[in-house]
Design a protein that fits this description.
about 160 residues; alpha/beta; about 35% strand; two-stranded parallel sheet; globular; Rossmann fold
Length: about 160
């Protein structure tokens, strides 16, 4: 059915994070830093940070989706941009909620490459069309995903959210 969706609840999210963290731990990967792709990746990074006992969390703000199924031509890094010196020679785990097109994770991975000791990515969901095949995936799907943090409309709607640094 074309309009079937993945429905991630908060309890299922907790299970997904624990299972994803266990997969990473079982692989022997011990990241020094979890680099979150905001906004959806913030939840994933926080959960993985606790589960993998990583306190060094960084955030990279990237805009790509402008609505349900609508995107910019290319993802754009929004300020503030992390300082690559902070990532230097570290093992970095990129965390996001979904690898849909893969363009956002590809942008962040390209940002890290050449500056870090090792970079890998972890997502709750990966779609078949993703340009990037993440090292750690909880579930593969071709459906639209209803995340518990974005299924309800905002309490307030604000214009001009991008801040200049």
């Amino acid at each position: 059915m074309a309009d079937e969706r993945e429905n991630l609840t908060y309890p299922l999210f907790g299970q997904a994070i624990r299972e994803l963290a266990q997969t990473i731990a079982d692989d022997g990967y011990r990241p020094d830093i979890v680099l979150s792709i905001a906004r959806g990746g913030l939840f994933v990074a926080g959960g993985l940070g606790y589960a993998l006992d990583v306190k060094n969390l960084h955030v990279m703000n990237v805009e790509f989706y402008t609505g349900v199924g609508t995107t910019l031509d290319m993802p754009v890094v929004l300020p503030p941009v992390p300082n690559v010196v902070d990532l230097s020679e570290k093992k970095v785990l990129i965390a996001d909620d979904v690898a849909d097109t893969g363009k956002t994770i590809e942008l962040v991975r390209d940002f890290c490459e050449g500056h870090v000791a090792d970079v890998r990515s972890a997502v709750i969901y990966e779609k078949p069309q993703s340009l990037v095949k993440c090292e750690y995936v909880w579930k593969h799907t071709d459906r639209w995903i209803n995340f518990p943090w974005s299924v309800e409309p905002p309490v307030v709607t604000r214009e001009g959210q991008v801040l200049d640094s």
